[in-house]
Design a protein that fits this description.
187 residues, alpha+beta, 6-stranded mixed sheet, two-stranded antiparallel ribbon
Length: 187
Protein backbone atom coordinates (compact mmCIF):
# COMPACT_ATOMS: atom_id res chain seq x y z
CA UNK A 1 0.00 0.00 0.00
CA UNK A 2 2.84 2.41 0.85
CA UNK A 3 4.36 2.23 -2.68
CA UNK A 4 0.96 3.08 -4.19
CA UNK A 5 0.50 6.01 -1.85
CA UNK A 6 4.04 7.15 -2.65
CA UNK A 7 3.37 7.06 -6.39
CA UNK A 8 0.14 9.01 -5.93
CA UNK A 9 2.06 11.72 -4.09
CA UNK A 10 4.83 11.75 -6.70
CA UNK A 11 2.36 12.01 -9.55
CA UNK A 12 0.74 14.93 -7.79
CA UNK A 13 4.06 16.79 -7.80
CA UNK A 14 5.22 16.00 -11.31
CA UNK A 15 2.57 15.27 -13.89
CA UNK A 16 3.85 15.13 -17.46
CA UNK A 17 0.35 14.61 -18.80
CA UNK A 18 -1.00 18.06 -18.02
CA UNK A 19 -3.07 19.32 -20.95
CA UNK A 20 -1.27 22.62 -21.46
CA UNK A 21 1.92 24.30 -20.33
CA UNK A 22 1.57 26.30 -17.14
CA UNK A 23 2.81 29.82 -16.57
CA UNK A 24 6.60 29.89 -16.95
CA UNK A 25 6.62 26.98 -19.40
CA UNK A 26 6.58 26.98 -23.18
CA UNK A 27 6.14 24.19 -25.66
CA UNK A 28 8.98 24.02 -28.17
CA UNK A 29 8.67 23.17 -31.86
CA UNK A 30 9.40 19.48 -31.17
CA UNK A 31 6.52 19.25 -28.68
CA UNK A 32 8.68 19.08 -25.55
CA UNK A 33 7.59 21.28 -22.68
CA UNK A 34 10.46 23.42 -21.51
CA UNK A 35 10.57 25.17 -18.16
CA UNK A 36 11.58 28.79 -18.68
CA UNK A 37 13.00 29.40 -15.20
CA UNK A 38 13.20 26.37 -12.92
CA UNK A 39 12.48 27.59 -9.42
CA UNK A 40 12.76 24.73 -6.98
CA UNK A 41 12.23 25.51 -3.32
CA UNK A 42 15.27 25.56 -1.06
CA UNK A 43 14.72 23.60 2.17
CA UNK A 44 17.23 23.64 5.05
CA UNK A 45 14.91 22.10 7.65
CA UNK A 46 16.72 18.74 7.43
CA UNK A 47 20.23 20.18 7.84
CA UNK A 48 22.50 17.83 9.76
CA UNK A 49 20.37 14.71 9.23
CA UNK A 50 22.34 11.61 8.17
CA UNK A 51 22.05 9.95 4.77
CA UNK A 52 19.37 7.27 4.67
CA UNK A 53 20.59 3.66 4.45
CA UNK A 54 18.14 2.77 1.67
CA UNK A 55 19.62 0.32 -0.83
CA UNK A 56 20.05 1.61 -4.37
CA UNK A 57 21.29 -0.07 -7.52
CA UNK A 58 24.45 1.20 -9.17
CA UNK A 59 24.90 1.74 -12.92
CA UNK A 60 25.97 -1.88 -13.44
CA UNK A 61 23.32 -3.33 -11.13
CA UNK A 62 25.60 -3.46 -8.09
CA UNK A 63 23.97 -2.96 -4.67
CA UNK A 64 24.95 0.31 -2.95
CA UNK A 65 23.80 2.79 -0.35
CA UNK A 66 24.45 6.52 -0.26
CA UNK A 67 27.06 5.84 2.44
CA UNK A 68 29.17 4.28 -0.34
CA UNK A 69 29.88 7.88 -1.42
CA UNK A 70 31.02 9.32 1.94
CA UNK A 71 34.34 11.16 1.96
CA UNK A 72 33.43 13.79 -0.61
CA UNK A 73 30.35 16.04 -0.81
CA UNK A 74 27.48 14.34 -2.65
CA UNK A 75 24.55 15.80 -4.57
CA UNK A 76 21.74 13.24 -4.93
CA UNK A 77 19.02 13.95 -7.48
CA UNK A 78 15.81 11.89 -7.42
CA UNK A 79 14.11 11.82 -10.80
CA UNK A 80 11.97 9.71 -13.16
CA UNK A 81 11.85 9.24 -16.93
CA UNK A 82 8.21 10.42 -17.04
CA UNK A 83 8.89 13.63 -15.09
CA UNK A 84 9.30 16.57 -17.50
CA UNK A 85 11.09 18.92 -15.08
CA UNK A 86 13.42 16.05 -14.07
CA UNK A 87 14.39 15.37 -17.66
CA UNK A 88 14.77 19.10 -18.40
CA UNK A 89 17.29 19.64 -15.58
CA UNK A 90 19.38 16.53 -16.34
CA UNK A 91 21.78 18.26 -18.80
CA UNK A 92 22.54 20.97 -16.22
CA UNK A 93 23.26 18.28 -13.61
CA UNK A 94 25.65 16.65 -16.06
CA UNK A 95 27.39 19.99 -16.66
CA UNK A 96 27.65 20.50 -12.89
CA UNK A 97 29.10 17.01 -12.41
CA UNK A 98 31.74 17.79 -15.04
CA UNK A 99 32.53 21.29 -13.76
CA UNK A 100 32.84 20.27 -10.09
CA UNK A 101 34.15 16.69 -10.43
CA UNK A 102 37.23 17.43 -8.32
CA UNK A 103 35.13 18.61 -5.35
CA UNK A 104 31.67 17.07 -5.70
CA UNK A 105 30.03 13.76 -6.57
CA UNK A 106 26.71 13.99 -8.42
CA UNK A 107 24.40 11.00 -8.73
CA UNK A 108 20.92 10.75 -10.21
CA UNK A 109 18.68 8.05 -8.74
CA UNK A 110 15.66 7.03 -10.78
CA UNK A 111 12.40 6.50 -8.93
CA UNK A 112 10.78 4.71 -11.90
CA UNK A 113 8.84 1.75 -10.51
CA UNK A 114 9.82 -0.46 -13.47
CA UNK A 115 13.49 0.13 -12.63
CA UNK A 116 16.15 -0.79 -15.17
CA UNK A 117 13.56 -2.04 -17.67
CA UNK A 118 12.56 1.56 -18.36
CA UNK A 119 15.63 3.51 -17.22
CA UNK A 120 18.30 1.74 -19.30
CA UNK A 121 16.57 2.23 -22.70
CA UNK A 122 15.83 5.88 -21.81
CA UNK A 123 19.44 6.42 -20.71
CA UNK A 124 20.87 4.79 -23.84
CA UNK A 125 19.32 7.59 -25.94
CA UNK A 126 21.18 10.30 -23.99
CA UNK A 127 24.81 11.36 -24.23
CA UNK A 128 25.61 12.43 -20.71
CA UNK A 129 29.28 13.04 -20.11
CA UNK A 130 29.54 12.01 -16.43
CA UNK A 131 26.12 11.08 -15.08
CA UNK A 132 25.32 7.37 -14.70
CA UNK A 133 21.91 5.78 -14.06
CA UNK A 134 21.31 4.72 -10.46
CA UNK A 135 17.95 3.08 -9.68
CA UNK A 136 15.73 2.70 -6.62
CA UNK A 137 12.42 1.38 -7.94
CA UNK A 138 10.58 1.15 -4.61
CA UNK A 139 10.54 4.96 -4.18
CA UNK A 140 11.61 4.37 -0.58
CA UNK A 141 14.40 6.92 -0.95
CA UNK A 142 11.89 9.63 -1.81
CA UNK A 143 10.01 8.73 1.37
CA UNK A 144 13.23 8.70 3.37
CA UNK A 145 13.87 12.23 2.10
CA UNK A 146 10.36 13.13 3.33
CA UNK A 147 9.43 14.45 -0.09
CA UNK A 148 6.54 13.82 -2.41
CA UNK A 149 7.86 15.82 -5.36
CA UNK A 150 10.16 14.94 -8.23
CA UNK A 151 12.73 16.17 -8.81
CA UNK A 152 14.13 16.43 -5.30
CA UNK A 153 17.86 17.08 -4.96
CA UNK A 154 19.73 16.75 -1.66
CA UNK A 155 23.23 18.04 -0.88
CA UNK A 156 25.26 16.02 1.66
CA UNK A 157 28.61 17.03 3.12
CA UNK A 158 31.64 14.72 3.07
CA UNK A 159 30.52 13.16 6.38
CA UNK A 160 27.10 12.21 4.99
CA UNK A 161 25.10 14.95 6.73
CA UNK A 162 22.46 16.89 4.83
CA UNK A 163 23.33 20.50 4.02
CA UNK A 164 20.22 21.52 2.05
CA UNK A 165 17.77 20.27 -0.53
CA UNK A 166 15.94 21.68 -3.50
CA UNK A 167 12.38 20.45 -4.00
CA UNK A 168 11.45 20.95 -7.64
CA UNK A 169 13.62 21.69 -10.63
CA UNK A 170 16.71 23.86 -10.79
CA UNK A 171 19.07 25.13 -13.45
CA UNK A 172 22.18 23.55 -11.94
CA UNK A 173 24.29 25.66 -14.28
CA UNK A 174 22.66 28.93 -13.21
CA UNK A 175 23.50 31.66 -10.69
CA UNK A 176 21.13 30.43 -7.96
CA UNK A 177 22.63 26.93 -7.99
CA UNK A 178 26.15 28.35 -8.13
CA UNK A 179 25.47 30.40 -4.99
CA UNK A 180 24.10 27.39 -3.12
CA UNK A 181 27.01 25.20 -4.18
CA UNK A 182 29.64 27.85 -3.40
CA UNK A 183 28.28 28.05 0.14
CA UNK A 184 28.10 24.24 0.54
CA UNK A 185 31.53 23.58 -0.96
CA UNK A 186 33.24 26.46 0.80
CA UNK A 187 34.12 28.41 -2.33
Amino acid sequence: MAPLLGMALILGGCDKQSPAPVQGEAESANGVTEVAEPTGTLDISHRGEPMPATPIEGPKGEPLTLASFKGKPLLVNLWATWCGPCVAEMPTLDALADREKARLQVIVVSQDMKGRAIVDPWWAKRNFKLLKPYVEANTQLLGDFKSDVLPTTVMFDADGKEVWRVVGSMDWDGPRANTLLADALGK
